[in-house]
Backbone:
């Protein structure tokens, strides 16, 4: 059964002449990891913003887990979409500890549930002993894992990753690719990885979609 249906999605920036995304369609199964591969400026990051609800498409539809998030009749706001995101710079809160960063999106849960979910995430990213540390006290790889845990903690329907390895050196990138692939499989989380690096996509993804000229 199809878990994610993106159909004929198009979007153009108001003050730009180029179409950022044009007639894009993608169907995904539950737990599948798909790479979106293409050069800078081809519309990859804009596609993620459309899925997350940070932009509204000019046409097309997005359905996740049977729920229509956007079409010609409706638009579900970002905070109600059940979408997790990991950015290039991880976007961790520098004034919050690892534990506080992971707990940030769990305010709707009861205290017991929040603590249980926190411990589950710390175990998944293998940072049980680092909960009281701040982001500046962590390596780049550890920060990336915390960003993953924070995005995954609310149990999103889909995880969107925008060039998550771009700030890592080559040796660390190879290890983090391996770790992330293991974590995605362990969590059975449906994911989209946007990257310009073919090796990123091959290391992690079940299949790859190539974007060119916003298609």
Residues:
């Amino acid at each position: 059964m199809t878990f994610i249906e993106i159909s004929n999605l198009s979007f153009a920036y108001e003050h730009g002449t180029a179409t950022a995304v044009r007639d894009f369609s993608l169907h995904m199964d539950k737990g599948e990891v798909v790479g979106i591969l293409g050069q800078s400026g081809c519309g990859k990051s804009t596609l993620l913003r459309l899925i997350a609800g940070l932009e509204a498409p000019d046409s097309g539809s997005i359905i996740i887990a049977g729920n229509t998030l956007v079409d010609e009749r409706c638009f579900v706001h970002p905070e109600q979409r059940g979408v997790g995101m990991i950015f290039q710079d991880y976007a961790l809160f520098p004034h919050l500890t690892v534990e506080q960063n992971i707990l940030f999106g769990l305010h709707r849960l009861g205290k017991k549930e929040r603590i249980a979910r926190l411990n589950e995430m710390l175990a998944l990213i293998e940072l049980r002993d680092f909960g009281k540390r701040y982001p500046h006290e962590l390596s780049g790889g550890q920060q990336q894992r915390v960003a993953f845990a924070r995005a995954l903690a609310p149990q999103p329907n889909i995880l969107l990753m925008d060039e998550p390895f771009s700030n890592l050196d080559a040796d660390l990138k190879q290890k983090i690719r391996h770790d992330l692939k293991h974590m995605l499989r362990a969590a059975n989380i449906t994911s989209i990885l946007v990257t310009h690096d073919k090796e990123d996509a091959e290391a992690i993804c079940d299949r790859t979609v190539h974007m060119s000229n916003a298609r």
Remarks:
- The radius of gyration is 17 Å.
